[in-house]
Amino acid sequence: MKNKVKEILRIRGMRGAIxxxxxxxxxxxxxxxxxxxxxxxxxxxxxLRSMAKYLLIGIGQSFVMITGNIDLSIGSVVGMSAMVTxxxxxxxxxxxxxxxxxxxxxxxxxxxxxxxxxxFQMPPFIATLGTMFVARGIAYLVNGNRNTDNIAxxxxxxxxxxxxxxxxxxxxxxxxxxxxxxxxxFLIFSFILGKTKLGRHIYAVGSNKEASRLSxxxxxxxxxxTYLISAFCSVIVGYILCAxxxxxxxxxxxxxxxxxxxxxxxxxxSPLGGSGLLLGTFQGAxxxxxxxxxxxxxxxxxxxxxxxxxxxxxxxxxxxxLVRNGNLxxxxxxQ
Amino acid sequence: MKNKVKEILRIRGMRGAIxxxxxxxxxxxxxxxxxxxxxxxxxxxxxLRSMAKYLLIGIGQSFVMITGNIDLSIGSVVGMSAMVTxxxxxxxxxxxxxxxxxxxxxxxxxxxxxxxxxxFQMPPFIATLGTMFVARGIAYLVNGNRNTDNIAxxxxxxxxxxxxxxxxxxxxxxxxxxxxxxxxxFLIFSFILGKTKLGRHIYAVGSNKEASRLSxxxxxxxxxxTYLISAFCSVIVGYILCAxxxxxxxxxxxxxxxxxxxxxxxxxxSPLGGSGLLLGTFQGAxxxxxxxxxxxxxxxxxxxxxxxxxxxxxxxxxxxxLVRNGNLxxxxxxQ
Amino acid sequence: xxxxxxxxxxVTEGTTAAGxxxxxxxxxxxxxxxxxxxxxxxxxxxITMDSLDQHWVTLNEGAxxxxxxxxxxxxxxxxxxxxxxKQIECVNNAVAGGVDGIMIAANGPDAISASLxxxxxxxxxxxxxxxxxxxxxxxxxxxxxxxxxxTAGEEMKKALEAQGITKGNIGVISTNASTQSxxxxxxxxxxxxxxxxxxxxxxxxxxxDAAKAQTIAENYITKGVVGxxxxxxxxxxxxxxxxxxxxxxxxxxxxxxxxxxxxxxxQDGYLLCTMAQNxxxxxxxxxxxxxxxxxxxxxxxxxxxxxxxxxNKDNLK
Amino acid sequence: MGNSLVQMKNIAKSFSGTKVxxxxxxxxxxGEILALLxxxxxxxxxxxxxxxxxxxxxxxxxxxxxxxxxxxxxxxAQNKGVxxxxxxxxxxxDLSVSENIFLGREVMEGLSLNHKKMDEEAQxxxxxLGISMKSTELAGDxxxxxxxxxxxxxxxxxxxxxxxxxEPTSALSRKEIEDLFRVIRKLRDExxxxxxxxxxxxxxxxxxxxxxILRDGENVISGDLKDFSIDDIIRHMVxxxxxxxxxxxxxxxxxxxxxxxxxNAGPKVRDISFSLYEGEILGIAxxxxxxxxxxxxxxxxVDEKTSGKIYLFGEExxxxxxxxxxELGMALIPEDRRKDGLCTDLSIRExxxxxxxxxxxxxxxxxxxxxxxxxSEDTIKSLNVKAKxxxxxxxxxxxxxxxxxxxxxxxxRNPKVILFDEPTRGIDIGAKxxxxxxxxxxxxxxxxxxFISSEMEEVLGMSDRILxxxxxxxxxxxxxxxxxxxxxxxxxxxYEEKV
Lengths: 335, 335, 317, 499
Ligand SMILES: Nc1ncnc2c1ncn2[C@@H]1O[C@H](COP(=O)(O)OP(=O)(O)OP(=O)(O)O)[C@@H](O)[C@H]1O
Ligand SMILES: Nc1ncnc2c1ncn2[C@@H]1O[C@H](COP(=O)(O)OP(=O)(O)OP(=O)(O)O)[C@@H](O)[C@H]1O
Ligand SMILES: [Mg+2]
Ligand SMILES: [Mg+2]
Known about the structure:
The complex is a heterotetramer, with 2 copies of chain A (335 residues), 1 copy of chain C (317 residues) and 1 copy of chain D (499 residues).
Chain A: H1 2-9, H2 14-34, H3 41-66, H4 74-90, H5 95-119, H6 124-141, H7 152-155, H8 157-169, E1 171-172, E2 175-176, H9 177-195, H10 197-207, H11 209-214, H12 219-245, H13 256-266, H14 278-297, H15 302-325
Helix pairs in contact in A: 2-14, 3-9, 3-12, 3-13, 3-14, 4-5, 4-6, 4-12, 4-13, 5-6, 5-12, 8-12, 9-10, 10-12, 13-14
Chain C: H1 2-13, H2 17-30, E1 43-47, H3 54-70, E2 73-76, H4 84-96, E3 101-104, H5 113-121, E4 125-130, E5 139-142, H6 145-162, E6 167-174, H7 180-192, E7 197-200, E8 204-205, H8 210-223, E9 227-230, H9 233-246, E10 252-256, H10 260-267, E11 273-276, H11 279-295, E12 302-305, E13 309-312, H12 313-316
Parallel strand pairs in C: 1-2, 1-3, 3-4, 4-5, 5-12, 6-7, 6-8, 6-9, 9-10, 10-11
Antiparallel strand pairs in C: 11-13
Chain D: E1 4-15, E2 18-29, E3 33-38, H1 44-51, E4 59-64, E5 67-69, H2 74-79, E6 82-85, H3 97-101, E7 108-109, E8 112-113, H4 115-128, H5 144-156, E9 162-166, H6 174-189, E10 193-197, H7 204-207, E11 210-215, E12 218-224, H8 230-238, E13 256-265, E14 269-277, E15 281-286, H9 292-300, E16 307-312, E17 315-317, H10 322-327, E18 330-333, H11 337-341, H12 348-353, H13 369-383, H14 399-411, E19 417-421, H15 429-444, E20 448-452, H16 456-462, E21 465-470, E22 473-479, H17 485-492
Parallel strand pairs in D: 3-10, 3-11, 6-9, 9-10, 15-20, 15-21, 18-19, 19-20
Antiparallel strand pairs in D: 1-2, 1-4, 4-5, 7-8, 11-12, 13-14, 13-16, 16-17, 21-22
């Protein structure tokens, strides 16, 4: 029994996931004590629905981070996806086609990221900073520098409702579809990361690129795939925001790449690569959303909100760093 | 002669500085051909004045990047500095005191960054993401969630003008003071980076932390100093924005950290550390401002602007990467 | 309090009928009395587009002051930035938080509608302040932003013509491309120049940052524009400062919203005028309407155009 | 006792619960060269890192010239006159040679650095060492052996009382070693103390005065070197007798497996042609920088080839990437195991699995935990890897055990050709023999083994046939019978005439 626990604790990234879970519970309870509506069923349903988008971008960003890279274009791809999807729909394109086209364009950005970082070995921070600007530019241009009209106005109320329910307003087993979509993707990608060759290669590349290459890992292809996964997740979030608003907003997804980093890192994904679990990202996303939700529910000033969020991001990782270096409780290994 | 040229080209980061200069000239000429007002004296004066803020944050970010780290809190510290300075002035605090207090608070953020990254070895991306939120929160709180009133309204027209002229509206030798301030700081920090022990240690830490530590370099202190320098530069930019607007704006400096990265990286500072020259950062900042200015002057749509900026960021570094790997002209070193 | 007097003065200059109505409301506030009393200590939520713009902060202050008088609680539950998705979640949170009524300024009138309908389905009363959405509500106290923009354009045109200028380029600076109210102002402004020989430049965005707006305005001035319009507070301050710095007082600057800074720029002659709204009044009227409707009164979805008033050098004195 | 330069008493140190040093003593006198010996993982480097202030000790005392010292960081140790050359290369690649040499001890002129003085002094030290290198060159542009010399120059420049050298010669050529020894002796004659760690026992006689042997974090024996024979030393190190240092076996040479024709890749690989046969160990000798590593890298598809043909079992094959080569049944044990051989943050299990994931899938194509565990446990057992368990992070293994893990991950694939590039560098004698035995096993199974080594004895001792490289070319081929040190050196220095 004790061995079993030890075994589990030794899984790379598991400790981070557990830390995040503890933090999550604490935050949830604290807010609940301030405003007991936090514990209400409706609020919990909302929480799961809202965290879904952070979970998705967290998954994408985690894949990229585990290879030791970063994707700053996530937020822009979310916005681009929402705008492309909505623009097409308001031009009367059938839903499925609109979704596919949007996915395609999103994946192109992911592909370019992969080429730049994987093949041309550009620093990922810069490469994806570039595509971040480009994707946002496309979001602006696609409907001529304007937000789109309501999608139902062209698609018709039924079609519009269908789409909106599918991605945001509908429920399955009493829980919003948004959550189920994210959860399904979470399961699939957890499986890929934990149980497949690609997943193992992702850890290997994040740990040592050169050694992986000499072991026959096609590191360029692995890096490309992580950026495609990240773009895929971002596109789905774009659908969700589009369904939520019933229209495309050019600024949608702003800063989401950072929330993705936060979700991953709070959940124990190492931004230096080689380590992390999507289970942690799940906790991280939920923690982040609980924080946002709670601060909103208690009506905290935005200034206070920022400070609390900043402090929590730092603390989450600091704890982890201190525990790892063993100087949380002792004074050893200074410098 | 040829040897001299070769010698210069071998200086760490010199090649990047030259590439940026060439890019700068091209961009300037292209925009000038579209709108000849670009070449006007007033526009060039404006250009130098506007680039000063990018130069300053570029310097700060470059110092941090050369040690292989990053500072995401720059933009927030700029905003915080502008707000603190203006809030104090509109409460009747004498100018010098307001400036000093603002500097102090800015340096505290820099110090915290240094502690987190240097001493606690937190990933810099996360540590400074946290302080980015905190500093912005302070900017909101300091005047109770409001932009400040006009500083002249309390300080009096004369005092207000004095401050505004000193940092923005005044001219010396026909060029705006803003530029001179940035230029002076540029010279001082170029000296520090190129000619002093601290500068040498900054390169060493960025090149190989462990080797530097083993050689007796106090890497924690070096890292702290770079973050203090970065905060210092950000505070100065805060003064400039405060003087420019004559008030404190809570959102001032948004995204500046990225512009700092862009200026540095376009100018050949390696985001992986160990290499770069402030001379390059100078070119990078000027290029970035020329781009913004030019896109503005030719009246480009916001969508187009983003795309052009994104493409240029990528191209600037891609060129550098390709030249370095020698596969710009040959097909070597694939994979 | 000086603020309130300014607006009263301005309102007499105002062109809309709503102006009059507002003036009377305001007197009530000034005397510290209110005509409305809450039957129960209702819990209300105020959700503006963001929680940072001075405009929203003022609106919130108006609402909070009134809430105290009326005896209700108003929770300011706005998103930190202008973001449809975040605003929708704020509405969801308010619903989950068990409020009785919501006052909202819709960032995207379409975007927010579905979640408002959900709120109404739970028996929550909705009142619009500043910007309505596309769902029927108890009442609406909103500015016709397009009309406001048009008024701004007309003022600028008048001033230019007075200088004998009938053609030239005019710059536009706004906060961002995706907030409906500022987009409406932009469109209204352009409409005022339809059929004239003026050319309106491509709108440039400053994200609410006055310094950035100033840099953009300086570029416009270098290019040689005859006038510049600012779609919100930050842009307006930036334009005023740029005109001031250029020393070219012939350039006509017209803005939107009011603040200390804008007022002094107008008084010093760098800006021609600004389109002032009265957010504190909106806040107060919103609270009153929600309380009345919760008390059981049918407001029949009355929409009050709170209007904009033109603040210029003359009526600022 | 009073005149000892260094005295370490009862030093203990643990890493995350594992006792690495269990009360070790060490003594060094003025003008003495002490050879510190022991198996991989015996704790030599750890002990020296404590002496030089890099690690803090858990308990024990350090005296320098009789004075009790507590070093908190490397700088303090430096100030007290302790300099160390590390086992792993520790240079800043972006800095020049002189910048590296003076790092942390920059010469100032007022507020600013005195570049000129530093460059000149560095140049003087380099010249003294007999290294032809400009002090303004970038460290990153140097060859490994040159970098090693820079490390040595850096330590020498500190003018230290105590100089610690942790395997300084593992990357050096004979000529460079001789230059180094000359300098070391000079330092000794000046009255300094030198602690010298090496696995090259053959060079000890030429340099050391005293010897101290560690095993499993404990002192085994210390004394004057002249009182020990090499076999004594080996016995003390490994705790048992090693009969045959080079246990060569004879096998029937089979048919040709690999043929390389006119391989070219950059200036270091020029027109290489050779064949490798079943059940053969083909040794490759040469001086540092002869281009042997580059040849294997090009052959394996790590670096790009400019021209050349490769035949496997008589059929022409393309090896453009490592993946191609691996799929064709080749394996490469790279020279630098930390950089190229292992994902050091991953566990032993994951490292062993990395090239073998295809064979660990179950019928659904999903990685099978049982298969993976079985394969990794089997490998660990069969290669006798000393580790807590299979989940141990490979970073924390000692050099020899890391090398076994690298070997292990390839052996699982049953390759037909294995390229060993310096497989025994920095590995103790016991582990070396184990690796030789693995090579023999492979040979028996009919595998073709390519064996690059800079240690002449081992190439001579293990190879069936020897190719000698010089300057990127094959300059000679010797059968086992013909081969001896003089012959090899003759070919290894056969540079092209300058025109
Ligand atoms: N930082 C560390 N963390 C954990 N274990 C370590 C660390 N450094 C060394 N060890 C362990 O301590 C033991 C002694 O290592 P050390 O490097 O001192 O051996 P060594 O005698 O120098 O061996 P080699 O001849 O291979 O260099 C080894 O078992 C090693 O795995
Ligand atoms: N492109 C490269 N990338 C990485 N390492 C390289 C590269 N080229 C050379 N090296 C490394 O530089 C070192 C110097 O190798 P060198 O050129 O001296 O040839 P060598 O004949 O292999 O010598 P030896 O095998 O005795 O070290 C080797 O460790 C080699 O791995
Ligand atoms: Mg060692
Ligand atoms: Mg080699």
